Amino acid sequence: MLELSQACWICARLNARCSRVLPLAPRPMEDELLSSWLSRVACRYDLDGGALRGLLTTPGDDAETMTTLHGLDYQPAHEEIAVLAAAARLPVERLSTLALTTAHPTWPRHWYAWDWGVLVPSNGTEPYANALAPGWCDLCLSEDQAVGRHAYLRRHWAYAAVGFCHRHRLPLRHLCPFCQTAGSLRFVPSDGGTRLCCGNCDLTFPRQKGHRVKRLEARLGLV
What we know:
The protein is of the alpha+beta class. The chain has helices at 4-15, 34-43, 49-57, 78-87, 92-96, 100-103, 138-146, 211-219, and strands spanning 119-121, 127-129, 185-190, 193-198. This is TniQ domain-containing protein.
């Protein structure tokens, strides 16, 4: 991971519009949420995803006004996708596939899990949520760590009508098992990759190996 002083120097250059290309940007996973990918990139520079989004896509001092990832996953603007793709040295088409409206163009908005504590006006009368509220599967995260893969948020974890992991057939978590808060997730660097972390208590998931995790590692031949 870059030193904090190096990260600050990079961010200063971005904010001054001297450079729009990141020296380090992990590649997106095929089934990853766009906000998950940008958050994984941001954690390499000691930033959260919203802060990096503002620095890359908002010129000058206005970058400070965009501090969230709200609205990024569902139907991001083509111009924003183009800027993010250029910064990460990715084809625009590759990054566009992470948008929910691209992956499922016929799905209505309410088929996804939204954080209804974050509402914005739609047609002047009915509010709608603009921030996804995905769950996560402890076994998937353990598997990521066991095989040396970056932890990331899968797209199907944001399907409102599902609520379980497609791979392990277990209910998804929506609350931190340590502080019992919801809706506050971030990534932290770990052993050259990333791990999911509670934004409230700063503990990473999963923290301890329970019997289900040990059975998973046995099936993978890692123990």
